[in-house]
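Q: I have 390 residues here and want to know how they pack in 3D. Can you give me a structure?
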Amino acid sequence: MEMAGGKQISPNIPVKSSILLCFSHLRWNFVHQRPQHILTLASKQQQLIYFEEPVFEERHYPFMRVNDETPMIRTVTPVLPAGISATKADAIQRRFVDQILTSAPHDRLTLWYYTPMALRFSDHLRCDVCVYDCMDELSAFKNAPAELTQMEKELFQRADVVFTGGLSLYEAKRCLHKSIFPFPSSIDVAHFHKARQPGDDPVDQVDIPHPRVGFFGVIDERLDIEMIAQAAAAMSDVHFVMLGPVVKIDPLSLPRAANLHWLGAKSYADLPRYLRHWSAGWMPFALNEATRYISPTKTPEFLAAGLPVVSTAIVDVVRTYGAEGLIDIVDAEDLEPKLRSVLSSPRNLLLKKVDAYLANMSWERTWEAMAAHIQRAYAMKSTVPLRRGA
């Protein structure tokens, strides 16, 4: 559905309802990760409007590209004329946000931020609860806006409750807000357990020899490209399968080898089909500012799939999964011997321990705990004015 700036949205949103308006730097239909897991669960109790960063096209006028993903999940992507100034882009998005909320009468409004940059066009909004789900240290990422750090400070001041995507990030931010809580990546166990069951090999993977070591996720500056090239060169008999979209780096900069297979982006639904035919999973992350606070969702997903895993020394991975003996921590010097050791060990060696560890992890539990914090924040805001009036 496309709507020009002056048209009304034809809402299939209830006349009066609870609305969660999320501002995100991530596309809803890009990589299925934390926002999709959490907000899909949130949409069971309220209408979700997922407002993405704009796209710029050769157009004469701005409009909103709207998709109803489900009856309770609506994605909105501002489409702006190429070359438009940042000031005009903010003004148009501010108007779009106002139009959305005017077209959807509501009793309760929750604002949910994944990107502080959205404050540039949403700082005028009044809401019942403001949530900042700080899933990454965005200021450390490649091409981060110069003003992002300042915008985050403003968001900390506005937010009623803050969540972080991992324990390290919580420790770095906890002094900045009185109601901040760590929520590391969780897991849809049933989905990844499908990888433990037999099934056909995907067409683009079927001809790749074994053993296979695989990675899935966004391929960007957080990966140690040099380590990947060294591993492929040192272990010519092992085939490395890399799934995921390439962003923020030149695809031509990726190393090429007969045993290195870049298969591109895959849907979340298809991941178990690929993983069931791998011998091991690996997470060859670079150790840099961009990875200092990450808590990769794929760690428990690999484990739920029944794969042994090796990873570089990402702090939250070492402290959580490495300390429990569930994965092997490697560096460039010992990657080959540790990976060969993993490949030669019985695949089901850790399954019982893994399953016991993952038994209490689920996105449902994560959302329930988040929702409880949000409800407390709402209750506090609702009762304080009454006390003052009394």
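Q: Anything worth noting?
A: The radius of gyration is 22 Å. The longest strand covers residues 73-81.
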